[in-house]
Amino acid sequence: xxxxxxxxxxxxxxxxxxxxxxxxxAAQAIAMVGMMAxxxxxxxxxxxxxxxxxxxxxxxxxxxLPHLFSGALLSxxxxxxxxxxxxxxxCLLVAxxxxxxxxxxxPVAGLLALVFLVGTAGxxxxxxxxxxxxxxxxxxxxVPGRSLLRLxxxxxxxxGFGLGGLLLTVVTPRAALLMEAAAFVxxxxxxxxxxxxxxxxxxxxxxxxxxxxxxxREVMAVRPLRRNLLLGWAVPLLAVFPEALVxxxxxxxxxxxxxxxxxxxxxxxxxxxxxxAGMRALTPSRQVRLIVPLxxxxxxxxxxxxxxxxxxxxxxxxxxxxTGVIHHLGQDHHLMRVTPAPLRSRALAVQTAGLMFFQGAGxxxxxxxxxxxxxxxxxxxxxxxxLAAVLLLxxxxxxxxxxSTL
Length: 406
Known about the structure:
Blueprint: H1 3-7, H2 12-16, H3 19-50, H4 53-64, H5 66-73, H6 77-80, H7 83-101, H8 108-136, H9 139-167, H10 173-194, H11 208-221, H12 223-239, H13 241-244, H14 246-252, H15 257-281, H16 284-289, H17 291-297, H18 311-323, H19 327-338, H20 344-370, H21 375-393
Helix pairs in contact: 3-4, 3-8, 3-9, 3-10, 4-8, 5-8, 5-20, 7-8, 7-10, 8-9, 8-20, 9-15, 9-19, 12-19, 12-20, 12-21, 15-18, 17-19
């Protein structure tokens, strides 16, 4: 990116000016709301069939787990297959799988297997979408575009789960799954006719798995890029702890249902405010310079849980932690600067897969830890570990000054 572009404030309309990006944005919004609503419906369907809270929770775990599988073993697809074809194929595959899940009499084991396959296709779709953005958007519009996709992901989580609950008051879980299938058909159509076909970058021959693992080794061999990726995964891994433990913390502090709702909404609302404020108030160069303090903002409020705050105090801490999401803006700029051009598509696919996997892992680790230790202890420990990780993984200085750590 040029220095001129670096010092120019970037705006969401820079990204939305691209017709191709508008198609990608609309497709993601429709697909994510459909997937979130269907995930909720599937947990209900599994619980009704088995009465098992563990199997019901496993549905959401299986939605995250494939991101590690796809990131490690399928990331080379973004270089081997033209990205538009890859994205539309993934959308249509999810539509077929969702329709299969809606079949009457589908055994629970079959449902869980199909959930895993849906997650795998969704992870490849996310990697393809990340890889195509630098081709669709100018340097000035790239970070606003990434920010908009993060915003729609936050909104889709809230709307999707809310829509899932509302839908199940008027339709069956199987009908909700068919609606997911329809949503992904619409998303495929938007991508097919709203974006331009571009030739594949040309990945290596032979096994997709071997090529993917080799690509990951190449990506992680670039020290500044490796630090960028590790920081981008470590912060959400630990920052998600209080959000994952909202229910047990509310029980620990004897909160009402309304107070629980306040806590559940606080961090996503902070993320929305942070994204908008960061884009509006900070130039790109400041976004990069502030990566460390803003990443620390995602974690420092977690230390306040040691004081066992009430609903208002805990909600404020969660809101402040959510605003720290701004550090992703600077990391997006930094990643584009330090990634060699031949590795860019692969690096973006790996980054996306890792982010989703480690967020899911954070939820699982938080839940496991809270089985043995009070939430008011688990969350501050996560915050302290996260702050140490930020210091360790802070962006490396220019190559001539780079140290040998990591």
